[in-house]
Amino acid sequence: MRSFVSLSPARAVVAAVLLLAVPACAGADALPTVPAGFTIEVIAHIRAARELAAAPNGDLLVGTNSRNVFLVPDAEGSAGAPRVFAVMPDEDAAGVALGDGALFVGTHSGVWRIPYAAGDRQASAAARQLAAVRTQGGGGHSTTSVAVGSDRLYVSVGSSCNACTESDPTRATIQELPLSGGALRPKAVRIRNAIALAIDPATGALWAGVAGQDELEHGHPYEIFDDVSAHGGVVDYGWPVCYEDHVAARAGADCANVAISRVVFPAYETPIGATFYPLGGAGAHAFPPQYRGGAFVTLHGSWHVPLVAPRVVFVPLREDEPLKPVDWNDPNVQWQSFLDGFQTSFGWRIGRPTGVAVGPGGSLFVADDAAGVIYRIRPSGPS
User: Fold this and answer.
1) Which one, of 348, 227, 164, 201, lies nearest residue 279 by Cα?
2) Domains contained in the chain, CATH given
3) Is the overall model pTM greater than 0.85, yes or no?
4) pLDDT tens, 251-297?
């Protein structure tokens, strides 16, 4: 989430009123809208639900902004009542990812491994810390995202500020950690808050959705969603002095060699979660072919005035290449809205999407930390 914009007192009051109006204006049965041919339902209530990890047996692991990691049993089927899977030693257990026989959890201060086998309904052993993050104190972005590659774990730690030079080597970076053991080492640097980490299962590529800085020209910087793996070595994204297509935020900044994103969204959208829809499209609830191989990205919205609406978007891709190239004059051309209706024209909200995952049966699961629910989306007829 963004938390660094300086608003005038009048604008701050308007933003606060709009945000506080959400519970009073949103009906208890209000749901976001899906495209024609799809259905949506609430399958679980979990306070401050964040990242999601779908298990191969149809269970769903849910990170939260507390110490609890929850499990929704049989989320692809009857969806039983949520239960606590693990209580972490640290707050903000928001980042979750399954792989290598384990559940990996990112918290405020660390990265943890819990042994996991399909069918486990609670942790079979205590969490073991793999690495420490935010080693020089808290402040700023508080959650840690994780994604499991074929031989390494990726860890994203957001910045401590809106625009500064970090002294903590873990802040404003994506780190990688060998699954065989070892220490964190940087994969991407000067990347303000790469909170939406996702692995393309067809290619193994690491993608990151990034919340950019505030207090630039209104409407900039565009939010980015990029194939980090497409860049060699340690990838430099240029924050806070460079953004978009080699644009300098400060006079004299050298932006010639910073990485340029493959996909952009409008400013202040705040990517929180991302997942790729499998190419195979197997399962009783498989999405139509046009969605296979593309990415779903949750956009948390903003508290800027006017409020930028939360939504879940779909980015058509083919082997990690967007079907449409970036248009630096229009950040709306590469994606289409999929899950909408979180915000009215008056700024009232019924929720804000966070985590997203695809179940083994093909269902799309979306977490909502404002409404405290998990949505399940499926085609309404044969795929």
Assistant:
1) 201
2) 9-379 (2.120.10.30)
3) yes
4) 999 999 999 999 999 999 999 999 999 998 779 999 999 999 999 99
